[in-house]
Specification:
Layout lengths: L1 H13 L9 E3 L10 H8 L16 H4 L18 E3 L21 E7 L8 E10 L4 E9 L1 E5 L4 E9 L2 E3 L2 E5 L13 E10 L2 E7 L8 H5 L4 H5 L3 E6 L16 E4 L8 E3 L2 E7 L5 E7 L2 E8 L5 E5 L2 H7 L1 E9 L10 E6 L10 E3 L5 E7 L2 E9 L2 E9 L4 E3 L3 E3 L5 E6 L9 E6 L6 H4 L6 E2 L5 E4 L6 E6 L22 E3 L9 E4 L4 E7 L6 E5 L5 E6 L3 E6 L2 E8 L5 E9 L6 E3 L1
Length: 584
Amino acid sequence: MSSRAGSTRVGALALLAAAAVAALWLFVRDDDTELDGHSEAGRALGGLESSGESAVDERAPAELAQPRGNDAATPPLRADASTRSGALPSGEASTPNRTAVSTGGVQLEVMFQSPNFEPLHLARVTAELEFEAGARTSAEAVDAASLRLPLDTDGVATLRIVAEGHHHRAQELVVERARIEPDDRGQRVLRVDAVLWPADWVSIVVETPDGRPFTDLAAAFGLQPQALFAGAFVARVSALPPGGGDPPPHDSTLAKFHGTRGHKSFVREERGVGALELLRPPPLWVGLELYGASLGWQSIAPGDWEVRFTLGVDTLDALLAGLEFIVVEQLTGAPLAGARAELRADSPAHRRADLEATTGPDGAVRFIRVLPGRYELNVEYEHFQHQEFLEFAIAERRRLGPIRLESRGGLEVLVVDAKGRPARASVEIGSYRPGQRPAEFFPQSLRHHSDAAGLCTVPTRATPMVLRASVEIGRTNKPKEVQEVGGTRSAFLIVYPTQLPPQPVRLTLAESKSVQVTSSIAATARIDILDPNGIVVARATGTRAMQFDSIAGSYEVRVYDEKGEILRTATADWTKGPRDLRLD
């Protein structure tokens, strides 16, 4: 591994201008611990889900992605300090400096973390910082979650940590002390996180065939690493070796995989994709999947704390999807120039600028290297819109038929409160489809907002439209939720393009109330609440009671059995206000 460490140092110097993505960088994800669409494939194959037990770290991405100053006003340290993982130390660090560290100069504070990125207290720990120019300093601490070392020189240095019962992968720092500003206590401190693996944890490392960090593959595509790899890896474990055509059976009692926890909270080494917490002693086998496709299997022997997989650019490119279509004029069918197209991932981590385009004279649009998962395709010309949701499988190449747009004005909307006064709110528009939940026809991103006068303009389309205004108090489009929007909101309004109402169309906000619907029917497997338009405003499965926020109105309640057959229907007349309902 020493030769690999040497090549890493050379790579670090070559990439100094891009130090923000050196050793610690932020993986971004849509909704905290929920896995994205491509990870569903991994779960379907029996893979280990990422652990989501730890508290979410709400630090901003720029703060998490680099060594940090102590004051919010401190300028980013990307130009003066970065970290790059290297080879493990071959033995103990040099003799510790047991004298007190001076607080008058610039210092390095190393904060210890467990593999699931929780603070780690170590009974006894030694840290050594060795500069390429030859300078060396070290410090020792007892029962500590961090320690400090003096920074008396600039340049490239390797940080090594020795702690009984733990392993540490050496980190390479690039230090420029002049850029480290004093914090609110007047101290000039560069803070870095160091991950240490306990004896019963195994780090999962992914590298290119030539030994570079797998995150370098993103640069080959002109992308940030999180745009390709956030939440993308899933691990499987088995006591049996792989063989034949089928993978060995997954056994969740052997180990627990700790991967990404949320796009605001998961800082990861550039070579690591997570860690296995061993629940039983080795030997065992671990398989790694990317977007649900296998990257192979590796064995874990007693004493191993790291397992390595290989990912090449050709393998990665073959797993990604693609989309092509042409935009034409509604009446003539001629290619339409100037239309704006966007393929927007449900997961914020996977939203990319290269998945946006404006059509040229040929009207053609081509999106490449699309991660598997769910996307909103939005194509607009002036105020006319085409919108649909697409789910991409691994390596799928999809070609759509012509998308027809025309020049047309937008739809003016007025949002008012219960007293008729103009109100600020988010306004959503989607394609009306009875029997669906709002999460199925509304995009996750809120693009339209009424102003102080309550007004906004939304695009029109060739199909029936559904509109809603809401004042968000928390939102989720997770399929397991009873409802994706609660709180103050309007009823759904259906607008037909062939019968546009007088404008502006009016959306009236109403306060919501929490209600409970209970079914005493033993065979109940699902309860749906539908509005007069046939839209499912709330759904609960696997239970005979559901709690949700409702606004006043008339609703239909449907009770289903496990086969999807309707057991009972009832009308909930809540025009004078929602109240609890029991179905016998």
